[in-house]
Amino acid sequence: QVHLVESGGGLVQAGGSLRLSCAASGRSIRVNTMGWYRQAPGKQRELVATLTADGRVNYVDSVKGRFTFSRDNGENTVYLQMNDLKPDDTAVYYCRLYSPSNNYWGQGTQVTVSS
């Protein structure tokens, strides 16, 4: 069974930084595409970034140059380094593991950016 556990969220002032973690168990992140999503109050969940098994990363335009998606295969954990945070980045952030048979989600971690 696959479990994803996010951590690292919190309250930060605009311009600050946070690093989110997503620890996976039951499946290797090395052979799966991973994704970070976010959902702001009253809005639909949106894709933030993806990281493929071969290391290709794609970001939504609004976070390019500010966010960095990385992974540690030994820890079976992915990270989202978020710099220069803006109030519009306020949301619950979710980790996702893509697989042909299913898609797995973590429980989410709250990020709040004050102006």
Keywords:
7-stranded mixed β-sheet; 53% strand; mainly beta; single chain; 115 residues; 4-stranded antiparallel β-sheet
Q: How many DSSP-defined strands?
A: 11
Give the rounded overall mean pLDDT.
96
Summarize the biggest pleated sheet: 7 strands, mixed
Structural class: mainly beta
Strand content: over 45%
As a percent range, the share of helical residues equals: under 10%
End-to-end separation: 40 Å
Element pattern in H and E: EEEEEEEEEEE
Segments where pLDDT lies below 50 for 5+ residues? none
Shape: globular
What is Rg?
13 Å
Number of helices in the DSSP assignment:
0
Question: Which helices and strands occur, and which strands form pairs?
Answer:
Elements: E1 3-7, E2 10-13, E3 18-25, E4 34-39, E5 46-51, E6 57-59, E7 67-72, E8 77-82, E9 91-98, E10 103-105, E11 109-114
Parallel strand pairs: 2-11
Antiparallel strand pairs: 1-3, 3-8, 4-5, 4-9, 5-6, 7-8, 9-10, 9-11
